[in-house]
Amino acid sequence: MNTVLFQQQTQAPGGIISFLPLILILGIFYLIVFLPARRRQKKLQMMIDNLKAGDKVITSGGIYGTIVGFKDDRIQLRVAENVKIELSRSAVTALQGSEQE
Fold it and tell me: Quick check: is 66 in a domain?
């Protein structure tokens, strides 16, 4: 019976070593998923902060238009002659000139 107990003790890996694969998987997951998403979000926020009148944009609803004015956290977008709509700044997803990038 002592030999069975002795064999079980020698086969058990150390505490930190058993968590090492999990830590590596989480690190790789962070590098593949979270880091690129954070970079895209920062780039989008910079683009939204730098919008100016005359920029041609695309909204999250797929509306193409030209910015004609700003009101607080909203933008006025001209989508056709004499047709203006107000949208949240966060509804802008891209500049029209940068859609090929």
Answer: yes
